[in-house]
Specification:
Organism: Candidatus Staskawiczbacteria bacterium RIFCSPHIGHO2_02_FULL_42_22
Shape: elongated
Order of helices and strands: EEEEEHHHHHHHHEEEEEHEHEH
Number of domains: 3
InterPro entries: SduA_C
Strand content: 25-35%
Pfam families: SduA_C (PF14082)
Distance between the termini: 46 Å
Largest sheet: 5 strands, antiparallel
Helix content: 25-40%
Radius of gyration: 27 Å
Strand order of the largest sheet: 1-2-3-4-5
Protein name: Shedu protein SduA C-terminal domain-containing protein
């Protein structure tokens, strides 16, 4: 590393050449700069090795960022890379990784990533899921839906269609079922039945999921869709909303019609054969949120909780999930332990 050099109010405390191109025309230098005798900056930049002119793209780190990077580099020294190809990270991936760790400056995450010997694509996937989890949270709790419609250019679409789009882009949320069989989206808006002669009466399921062998039907309602009705039953239970009862009837019809249709050879929108079979298929209904009972008195809340949970447990092959439960599951998959 070269000795100290002063340039105006900036002192160049040291510089090291990290890379020189085979032609010798370009180099990457790391410099430690002291600004106004108190602020240290680590700058990494590409230069023309002949003229000394810097290129536009550069990375600068200050304060705790320098320490975080140093700890990161120290942890690399503890590793052994048995496969050189696995250690190679493409420049585009490196930019994504830098963005991820800049937004989530978690040294423990970096160290665990290195010890696990994961690839750059794995890191980018983790970052993508964390980003999508944040969008899920904003959609569910922060009234982000209208803005999200603009982002995805679906301003005129119904809310259910927007949620369908979000889950289609994030099938990992559905991917790990409660029975721990990985499922992927085989087809969105699966036409579970044939139509009448005039094209009407077609039964649609929002998603057709499948593991390696069997299928699952998914129906999406809105987070705002009511689970409970207004009145309590005479017994120690609470009446369900018409929306919930109608949704269950709808998805059971999708299952019945879909099982008949899947007995015949079916293909997805890309022309690939759907090989999974439908044998008493499981159905999943995503509806409402638990926060609908937040304003209830204790007795009413307990009755609603008990009625809904008993109903779910006694509903054979129908898995009823609320949106906040699905969000909690996504948090678990990502490994987010924050409240």
């Amino acid at each position: 590393m070269n000795s100290e050099k002063t340039i105006g109010f900036v002192k160049e405390k040291g510089v090291i050449q990290l890379r020189l191109t085979p032609s010798g025309k370009q180099e990457i230098l790391a410099k430690i700069l002291e600004v106004n005798n108190k602020i240290y900056v680590l700058s990494i930049q590409r230069y023309d090795s002949i003229t000394g002119s810097p290129h536009k793209i550069h990375f600068s780190f200050i304060g705790r960022e320098i320490k975080a990077l140093r700890d990161f580099l120290d942890s690399i020294a503890l590793l052994q890379f048995p496969d050189d190809k696995k250690a190679r990270i493409e420049e585009a991936d490196l930019l994504k990784i830098k963005s991820i760790f800049y937004k989530n400056p978690d040294i423990k995450l970096i160290e665990e990533t290195l010890r696990s010997n994961v690839t750059s694509k794995d890191i980018v996937a983790i970052g993508y899921r964390k980003n999508q989890l944040e969008i899920f949270k904003k959609l569910l709790y922060e009234g982000y839906l209208s803005e999200y419609k603009k982002v995805i250019k679906m301003e005129n679409s119904k809310d259910e269609k927007v949620w369908q789009y979000f889950f289609e882009k994030n099938e990992w949320i559905f991917g790990y079922g409660l029975d721990y069989r990985f499922q992927s989206i085989l087809q969105k808006e699966f036409a579970a039945s044939n139509s009448e002669a005039d094209g009407s009466s077609t039964v649609f399921s929002d998603f057709l999921l499948g593991d390696k062998k069997f299928t699952t039907f998914v129906e999406l309602k809105k987070p705002e869709t009511l689970i409970w009705g207004i009145e309590k039953n005479r017994s120690n239970s609470w009446r369900f909303s018409n929306d919930l009862i109608d949704s269950i009837s709808q998805i059971l019809e999708q299952k019945a019609s879909g099982q008949i249709k899947l007995e015949l050879l079916q293909h997805d929108t890309d022309g690939r054969e759907i090989k999974q079979r439908a044998y008493d298929s499981k159905v999943i209904l995503i509806i409402g949120c638990w926060n609908q009972i937040n304003g209830c008195e204790d007795k009413e809340r307990r009755i609603k909780e008990k009625t809904f949970e008993l109903f779910r447990r006694d509903s054979r092959n129908i898995e009823i999930l609320t949106y906040d439960e699905l969000y909690d599951r996504a948090k678990f998959i990502v490994g987010d332990t924050t409240d």
